[in-house]
Each structure stands twice: as C-alpha cells, then as structure tokens.
Design goal:
The protein is an alpha/beta fold and 213 residues long. The protein has helices at residues 5-20, 26-34, 66-76, 93-100, 112-124, 161-165, and strands at 55-56, 62-63, 83-87, 104-109, 131-134, 147-152, 167-177, 182-191, 194-203. It has a domain at 56-203: Rossmann fold (3-Layer(aba) Sandwich), CATH 3.40.50.150. 29% of the residues lie in helices and 26% in strands. It is globular, with a radius of gyration of 16 Å. Bound molecules: S-adenosyl-L-homocysteine. Pfam families: PCMT (PF01135).
Length: 213
C-alpha cells in the first residue's frame, strides 16, 4: 500500500489531463490529486492507474475512467457536509472522491464480493463512509432520505423513481441513462413535484443491474 513519488508525479499529470479535457472544479481536481488511485486496482494494473482510462476490478466490473469520475463529481456540486447517496460502490474510488469533498456518503453495491472487498479496503486508507450497503440501488435508501445529491455510477436503462423521490428540494441526481451507451443526465429537484433536467453527452458504463432476488 505504497504511494511513491512516481505515483504522485503520474497523478499530477493525470490532473493536468483532466483540466485539459475541461474539468474546472478546483475542489474536485484537488480531491482527485490526493487519492492514490493505483491502490484501488489489482496490482497487475498498477502502471495503468494514472492513465485516463477505465479498468477491470473484481466481479467483471470496472473502476470508472478518471474523466468520468471528475465529470460526475463536478455535476453533483458537492458542498462540505452534504448528505450523498452513491449507487455502485465498486472499487470505492468515487466514494473516496466524495469523502475528500467533505460529504457524508452512503453507498450501495449489489455485488457481494466487491461490497466485502471495498468495505475492508476504504477504512484502511482512512476513508470512512457513513455506511456501505450491500443491496439494490434501484430502490435508493429510503431510511436515510432525503439526500443533497445522488450519483449513479452504472448505466441505468431508465431513471429509477425512488432516486428522484429521495432528493431534497434543490438536490441533484447525476445518472447515466441508456442501454448501449448512456447520456449523462442531471436532474435538479426544484419543487416537490418539479424537476429540471439537463443532458451532457454520451458515456459508457457497465449496466445497472436489476436485483437478483
Ligand atoms: N463507482 C465505482 C464504479 C464501479 S462500476 C468505482 O469508482 O469503482 C459500477 C458498479 O455498480 C459495479 O460495482 C456494479 O456491481 C454496481 N451495480 C450494478 N447494478 C447495481 C445495483 N442495482 N445496485 C447497486 N450497485 C449496482
């Protein structure tokens, strides 16, 4: 679990790449410059950790491309102390970014193997989510709602209603919507029953899967 000068140097370069691709939010760039992404991947991928690419993690899943993580984090407009829900914990990298931004994070993962692995791993790096949950993200997390923000890190074939319903007024849902490719979509809850929707181009995610049970 080392973070060497080499890693730090590569990470600084990655942050420059993210800037050149249009990421402007300084708090997001700062957060990502602190997180040792190489430790979130299997060791054989160490050298690839600071390329702007998605990579396989356990259970046929991927750690999202750094640009995608930065883009989604920027859209979420995280403020210190925000209560956030993440769907798709995966490697925990996005979770770590949200924690670095000062949020209280709840995160749901449906793959048991990943859930167990990441639940052990994140605290080792000092990243303490409010709760990591093994379960189905389509339902959101009613007992902790409402949230300032909800971020979905898998491709959703449609927008699950519970996620919209679990937003505070003024809250933001960032969700990639689509089957083969996904359109990055932002919903802002303006009033109880009024949502503003904005789209931000195509991305590619592993699918948000329906509950197995
Ligand atoms: N945020 C992660 C991205 C992981 S890929 C990271 O930074 O590494 C998306 C994750 O969503 C996978 O781990 C997958 O198992 C999970 N997932 C898919 N469908 C889900 C569902 N219905 N509920 C919760 N998690 C889900």
């Amino acid at each position: 679990m080392e973070d060497t000068f080499k890693h730090k140097g590569l990470r600084a370069k990655l942050i420059e790449t993210l800037k050149s691709k249009g990421i402007k939010d300084v708090s997001v760039l700062n957060a990502m410059s602190k997180i040792p992404r190489h430790l979130f991947m299997d060791s054989s991928f160490l050298d690839h950790a600071y390329q702007d690419k998605a990579f396989p993690i356990a259970a046929d899943q991927t750690i999202s491309q750094p640009y995608t993580v930065a883009f989604q984090s920027e859209l979420l407009q995280v403020k210190q102390g925000d209560k956030l829900l993440e769907i798709g914990t995966g490697s925990g990298y996005q979770t770590a970014v949200l924690l670095e931004l000062g949020a209280k994070v709840f995160s749901i993962e449906r793959q048991q193997e990943l859930f167990k692995k990441t639940s052990k791993f994140l605290p080792k790096l000092g990243y303490r989510a409010k709760r990591l949950i093994f379960g189905d993200g389509y339902k959101g997390l009613q007992e902790e709602a409402p949230f300032d923000g909800i971020i979905v890190t898998a491709g959703a074939p449609f927008v699950p209603k519970p996620l919209l319903e679990q937003l505070k007024i003024g809250g933001r849902l960032v969700i990639p919507v689509g089957e083969e490719t996904q359109v990055m979509t932002l919903y802002i809850r303006k009033e109880e029953k009024t949502f503003e929707k904005e789209t931000f181009g195509d991305f590619r995610f592993v699918p948000l899967l329906e509950d197995k049970s």
